[in-house]
Amino acid sequence: MKTWSKLWNRSKSPSKQRKFRYNAPLHIRKRFMSASLSKELRIRYHIRNIPLRVGDKVKIMVGNNKDKVGKIKLVDLKNYKVKIDGLTRSKTDGSKVELKFEPSNLMITELNLDDEKRKKKIERKK
Q1: Is residue 30 part of a domain?
Q2: Within 13 Å of residue 85, how many CA atoms lie on the same side as its CB?
Q3: Domain boundaries, position 60
Q4: In the chain, how many domains are there?
């Protein structure tokens, strides 16, 4: 039995939606890791959102760390989470743990354009 279908369109069933996300290959998971751009970047690049990359500066929009800004340290495609530099919390035993964020709760304020592929992708999306 196939676990993931390229032809699958959509379903109202939450269990089927979870199954689609859980079994998705990496090139599809990368699309799930998109965040919206700030107003200035939307005007400059004429796109609404783009997949996150290490080195992008993001602003947290939701939660206790709202309005904090930092650079992306790690993009975890397996768990659909993002780690941001310098944002940690302390556990009861005193050790520090890096916080993980959902990409939907972030807004990109500055893009990492070191890679030529990313520049070309932005031009194509226009």
Answers
A1: no
A2: 10
A3: 35-125
A4: 1
In this prediction the pTM is 0.86
Contact criterion met (CB below 8 Å) for 82 and 88: no
Laid out side by side, the sheet with 34-37 consists of 49-51, 34-37, 106-110, 57-60, 69-76, 81-90, 96-101
Taking the CB of residue 34, how many other CB atoms lie within 10 A of it?
A: 16
- pLDDT string in tens for the chain (126-residue length): 456 777 778 889 999 888 888 888 998 899 899 999 999 999 999 999 999 999 999 999 999 999 999 999 999 999 999 999 999 999 999 999 999 999 999 999 999 998 888 888 888 877
In a domain, 54, yes or no: yes
Q: What is the CATH number of the domain that holds 81?
A: 2.30.30.30
Q: Which amino acid is at 109?
A: T
Name the pairing type of β-strands 49-51 and 57-60: unpaired
Whether residue 82 contacts residue 32, with contact meaning beta carbons closer than 8 Å, is answered with no
Between the two ends of the chain, the Cα-to-Cα distance in Å is 39
